[in-house]
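Suppose you are handed a protein chain with no further information: no name, no annotation, nothing but its sequence. What can you learn? This example shows the usual starting point.
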Amino acid sequence: MRPASGERRLIPAALLIGGVAAGVVALVGLQIAQRSKAIASATAEAQPWTIEGAPCPLRAQIPAAEQLTPARERAFAFNGVRFVRQFGHVECSVFGAGESGLSYSSLCQFTAPATLQVTANGRTVEFQPGVGKPATVFVHESQIRCVLGVNIPTVPKRP
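A reasonable first move is to predict its three-dimensional structure. Written in structure tokens, the prediction is:
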């Protein structure tokens, strides 16, 4: 007994849909693997575990007379976190925060920000590292941490 003509058309359509679904799953898996590799590479390069320093002073804990008033603000967003600094340069990276390779945190290193404002997941924290003092900010979910110090690699001078 031969299948009806309508049934003959359903089999190739089902195979096509199954093939497309398998392709999408493979692409998503490849993207996750590439992202995990990129995070592992950035983690190795940034070496966040080597950055030590005293906690950055919170702006709210500094007497009003000693608080720096930003003359200008330099704002940017990185990985969904908003940063505002007054001076200096910045270098940001993503690093692995868990053993799964799927959890990550942001790390931004500032050469001399004077003041910093960091907003993550609706929470804003203001720091005042001070003029000419480098600082590193770690952000994981809504946890925001700042330490005085950086490990930005120096650029070799040309001969």
